[in-house]
Design goal:
Largest sheet: 9 strands, mixed
Shape: elongated
Oligomer: single chain
Number of strands: 14
Family: Belongs to the glutamate 5-kinase family.
Number of helices: 14
EC number: 2.7.2.11
Bound molecules: adenosine-5'-diphosphate, ligand VHF
Protein name: Glutamate 5-kinase
Subcellular location: Cytoplasm
CATH superfamily of the largest domain: Acetylglutamate kinase-like
InterPro entries: AceGlu_kinase-like_sf, Asp/Glu/Uridylate_kinase, G5K_ProB, Glu/AcGlu_kinase, Glu_5kinase, Glu_5kinase/COase_Synthase, Glutamate_5-kinase_CS, PUA
Length: 377
């Protein structure tokens, strides 16, 4: 069976600060998930919103603080939540199944294997499994609290194609965008480091719990399990499919770096380039799509003072970075032979290897070479 897409929807996307479910939003998300399935992707939903859906019916004016109050609210709200999903998916001819999990279920091999078998059976039969934390039995220290971590563990359990975490902001910003309007979105993250944790703050709404920090933690868990993650907004028709296809309104957490050898990780993300060469379209294609080495014939321009063994950056004719590699030429040698055929090069200078960058010493980086890319907009 095709790999599953795990979609997590937070309370802030389903309810308002005053509590209560927003049926229109549930209908919208069911339609979005139905579209993913039409494109052949089995879908599993991790949903929050039980406490937010139930607290008003329990007589609380705002989301309650005490555990037993939240649990009772969740027991009321979970039924409302499932009823709403049941109806919304039914209008697309799709059945749903409810699964409530706690953190301790994941540390018990037997229980988690049973949960996995249930999920797989539902998926095989064309249903959408809908998961939430089992709030009634979870005690504070053992609670996920937010469902972000839960969704990452489920994604790893199923070896999902992608984890899509839907929230009320379009991704990770350099600061909480609710607090600073100048904050800029980070489009792509290859590595979750201290800096990423530092900028990710808590929840900005009255109903959400984990904020961006718990989404980063979830992304770290999923990336470690080899599952790429999208965190962002899905609020217009087609957004969920766009998120899956890499053109969504949010931040992508890439697993590419995790699958690389140590040498290539260093080359791509930690090395300091000493120069830059511009290559022609043929060389760009050979490097990026052909798995070939860079030869002097494809080099158009050389910038910087580098020596054999240094790392250099390679840009395409539009000056976009396409990758990095270890050069076998000094800058002055390359300047002398740029654009020449291998035969001509051998007549003019003596080099240890004819390739400017050998393919084993090259890493493709479609986008700028940083641990994260900040949107230019
Ligand atoms: N650096 C940041 N970038 C984006 N959002 C952030 C950041 N720091 C904190 N946040 C807050 O995280 C919120 C999303 O988390 P949360 O309220 O828990 O939503 P959900 O209910 O969808 O899980 C955003 O509304 C935003 O206010
Ligand atoms: N299990 C809880 C989830 C708590 C929560 O608010 O999570 P989230 O909105 O994902 O930050 C519920 O359904 O209300």
């Amino acid at each position: 069976m095709q790999q599953t897409v795990v979609v997590k929807i937070g309370s802030s996307s389903l309810t308002s600060d005053e509590g209560g479910l927003n049926r229109d939003k549930i209908g919208f998300f069911a339609a979005e998930l139905a579209k993913l399935r039409e494109q052949g992707h089995p879908v599993l939903l991790v949903t929050s919103g039980a406490v937010a859906a139930g607290f008003r019916a329990m007589g609380f004016a705002v989301r309650p603080k005490h555990l037993h109050e939240k649990q009772a609210s969740a027991s009321v709200g979970q039924a409302l939540l499932m009823q709403a999903y049941h109806e919304a998916f039914a209008s697309h001819g799709i059945g749903v199944g409810q699964i409530l999990l706690t953190r301790s279920d994941f540390s018990n091999r037997k229980r988690i294997t049973n949960a996995q078998m249930t999920i797989e059976e539902l998926l095989r039969r064309g249903m959408v499994p809908i998961i939430n934390e089992n709030d009634t039995v979870a005690v504070d220290e053992l609670k996920f609290g937010d469902n972000d971590t839960l969704s990452a563990l489920v994604a790893n359990l199923l070896r999902a194609e992608k984890l899509i975490i839907i929230t009320d902001t379009d991704g990770l910003y350099t600061e909480d965008p609710r607090k600073n309007a100048d904050a800029r979105r980070i489009d792509r993250v290859y590595e979750i480091d201290e800096e990423i944790y530092r900028i990710a703050g808590g929840s900005g709404s009255m109903v959400g719990t984990g904020g961006m920090r718990s989404k980063i933690e979830a992304a770290r868990i999923a990336m470690r399990g080899g599952v790429p993650v999208f965190v962002g907004r899905v609020n217009e028709p087609g957004d969920a499919l766009a998120a899956l296809e890499g053109i969504g309104k949010g931040t992508y957490f890439d697993t590419r770096a995790h699958n690389l050898t140590m040498k290539k990780q260093w080359l791509g993300f930690h090395s300091l380039p000493q120069g830059r060469v511009t290559v022609d379209e043929g060389a760009e294609h050979a490097l990026v799509s052909g798995g070939k080495s860079l030869l002097p014939a494809g080099v158009k321009e050389v910038v910087g003072e580098f020596h054999p063994g240094d790392v250099i950056e390679v840009v395409n004719p539009s000056q976009q970075t396409i990758g990095r590699g270890v050069t076998n030429y000094a800058a002055w040698q390359l300047q002398a032979v740029a654009g020449l055929s291998t035969e001509e090069v051998q007549k003019r200078i003596e080099v240890y290897r004819i390739e400017v960058i050998h393919r084993d010493e090259w890493i493709t980086l479609a986008s700028p070479v940083k641990a994260q890319d900040i949107a230019q907009s």
